[in-house]
What we know:
The protein is of the alpha+beta class. It has helices at 2-25, 30-48, 52-65, 69-81, 85-101, 105-118, 218-253, 266-301, 311-316; strands spanning 123-129, 139-142, 145-146, 155-158, 161-168, 175-181, 186-192, 204-206, 259-260, 263-264, 318-324, 327-333. The strands form 4 sheets. It has a 4-stranded antiparallel beta sheet, with no helix packed on it.
Amino acid sequence: MSRRLVRTGVAMTAIVTVLWAGGAFAQATAQDQAAARALFDQGRTLVEANKPAEACPKFEESQRLDPGIGTLFNLADCYEKVGRTASAWSMFLDVASQAAAQKRADRESAARDRANALKPRLSNLVIHVAGDPDLPGLEIKRDGTVVGKPMWGNGVPVDPGKHVVLASAPGYKTWTGSVDVPAKPGESELSVPALSKDATPGAVSVDQGQGEKPADGSNGSSRRLIGVVVGGAGVLTLGVSTVLALSAKSKFNDTSSMCNGNFCTEQGASMRHDAVRAGNVATIVGGVGIVAMAAGAVVYLTAPSGNASSAAGKERFRTVVAVGPGSVAVGGTW
């Protein structure tokens, strides 16, 4: 059982990592760029015609096809016009951050001014946990997004409108609630009650520490080997990220003779665009490397010692699997 769980976990991690890395290298084709520009122009036309609700999806799709700081700024502006104040505020700050990295002081200043003007108008939502906040496996989601424990009991900016909150934990019934946040400054509150025990059959406990293990400790050795391999792959990926970053920097520096500040020739603008895109790819690849290194460390450090008679070894790694209607939850201790 222990080996199967380890192999499944490592396989799933590898699949996610490959998909993530593949997405990072996928650059917009010329066809995508053409479509993105057309959508951007359509969005601008709709905004000028005072139809922001129709314009926002145009900017969203344009940004998805070919991400750009200008499109992101216009999307933030569009969100502000339709009342999505929290999303607009966050995007303006993102634009300011990207502009600062590109040393575009004018755009950074404009984006920060818009964000600062929006901040006093933000609507906030406070989610209180009335039950045990330390309940093992307790997870709270707002509109499908996990709300981290540091945010419980604190007001966070949200877009005005209806928000659905779910609370769940292994072995307990899922609770669902909703709150309508008004489009005005201030805080709205929602309280999550103590969860009720789930009497549905199917909750099981799987303890790798108390199962049969080879006397020679080969199970632990295999897991440690997997940890070393995954961690080593992470180190190599970080090396690739460094090479990509240096290449992007070199390409950006090559545009100095074609640009005067933010004004570039057509060739210089194209080269800078490619350099920024390559830099983004390097950043994401570096993130993949860090994830792989961390995964390798976890697999290595949680490997059993191989001493079947050791009480400490039996309690070192424990996983709890809870099966309920339409859901599977996994928790554990190390």
